[in-house]
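Give me C-alpha cells for this 503-residue protein.
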Amino acid sequence: MYRLVLLSLATLALVAFVLSFFGLVVPGPWDLLVSAAVLVVVCAGTDAAAQRILRLPWRLESSLITAGILLFVLRPTLEPLGLVGIALAGAAASLSKYVLAWRGRHVFNPAAVGATVLTLVSLAAPALGASAWWVGSPVLAGPVIVLGLAVLIRTEKVRVIAVFVVTAVAVGVLRTSAQYQAAGLAVEVGDVVWPVLLSSPILFLGAFMLSEPLTMPPRRWQQFTVAIVVGVLVGWPIDLGVISLGQERALLIGNLLAFAFAFSVRAAVGLTLESRADLTPTVKELTFRARRRVAFTPGQYLELDVPHRHPDARGTRREFSIASAPEDLPTLKVAFRENPATKTHSSYKKALAQVSAGDALAVTGVWGDFLLPKKPVNPVLMVAAGIGITPFVSQLRHMRLAGEERDIVLVYVASEASELAFRDELEASGVPVVVFTRDRPPDLPRHWLWARGVRLDAEGLLQVVPDIAARHAYISGPAALIADLAPALERARSITTDAFSGY
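Here you go.
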C-alpha cells in the first residue's frame, strides 16, 4: 500500500509538471521542481536523523510520501523565504511522527501538521507562505480520482472516503448557497456542486490523507464517524478569526477523534518470537510474546512489520489474522500458508523465514470488523477456506475460555485432510464441523461430518446446513474462493467476509 501511495503521488506530480508548462496549474515547472527537491531533502533528512537517534529503521518511503503530499498542499515557489517556509513545514511534518506520537505511532497526519505549523507561523511572517491546496483544481480532478481510487481500493477505504466526500460536498453546497442567499443572489444547486467538488481539496484530502491507516480508528463505524466529522468541517470551516478549522485543521481534529476512539489499541507493540510450528504440510504457526498488552477483539487482524534489506514493491508489512484469544496474552499467535512448491517468494516471505526464536518484530496496528454478532443468541455459520480458519480459531477459543455459548456451525474447506489446521482447538470448542476435503479425514470427532459427494454451492450448503436462512454467515479465506462461495450464502441473514491476499 505504501509503495502504491508513493507511486500515485509521483504520477500526480508528473501530471502536474507537464500541465505547468501550459499554464494549466498555478505553479510553474521550476517552482514545482525546486519545491519538491527542498521537501524531499528536508523530510528525508529529518526522518533519517530522528530514526537514527531513536534507533529505528529508516523508512525512505514514509519521507517521500510526506514530501509528496506537502507538494500539493503548500504553495510551490522560487522565493527564498517561501522555500524556507516549505522547509519548515517539511521538518515539522517529519518531526511530528516522533514528537506527536503515542507508543510508537504518530497521532496526527504528518502533512497536516506541517501545513498547520506553517500557517500559524505565517501569521507573524507572511513571506514564509502558507497552505494553498492548489491541487484543488478541475484540471487535476481526473488524475486525483483515478489515482486516489487505486489507493482506496487497495486500502479498502472506498466507502469511508465516499462518505467523507458526500458529506463535505453536501455541507459545502449548503454553505455556498447560504452565502448567495445572504447576498440576495439566486443560485441553482447544480451550479454549486461541481465547483465545490472539483475546485476544492476534498478529493485529494480524502484519498491521500484521511485514508492513512495509521491515523484511522480500527472499527468501520468509527471510521465513518471520523469521515463525517472531517467532512462537515471541510465543507463548512469554523472561522476562528485569523484561521479556520477547515482542510488540514479539520483533518487534525478527525485524527484526534480517531485517537480517542482507539486509545487502547493505537500502539506499536514489540514482539519476541518464541517458536515456530508446522500445523500442516503448508500451514505454519508463529508464537510471539508481546512486550505490552495488545488490545484486540477475536476476529481482528494485526499488521506485522518485518524490516529487511532491499524490500520489494510490497514493502515490509503484512496483515495476519490473530489466531490466539485475548485470554492468551501476552502470548500472541498468527498462522499463514506457505507452499513449498512455490519457486518465487516475496522479500517479506524470505525475511520472515529467516526470523528465529528470540528475534524482535513489531505489531504496527490492529484493525478489523470481522466480529461475531454482539448478541450470543444469534445463530452463526462460519465458512473457512484454507488458512481462513485463523480468525475463527481465535473466536472459538475465546468462547471456550470465557464460557460463552453460541449456536455455531463451522464449514471447513481444505484441499486435503492433511491440510486441516487447528483440529485440536476446533474439536475442543465443541461446535459442529462440516469438512469439505477430497479425501476422508481420519479419526473424525463425533460432532464432525465429512461432506462426501456434496458440492459446495447453495444446494450443498442447504444440505449440510439446512437452517442457513436463520444464521449470520461469516466467510474467511482467499479472495478468489470468497468470490466463488459468497453467492451461495445469499440465503443467510447476513454475510460478512474476510479476504486473505497472501504475503
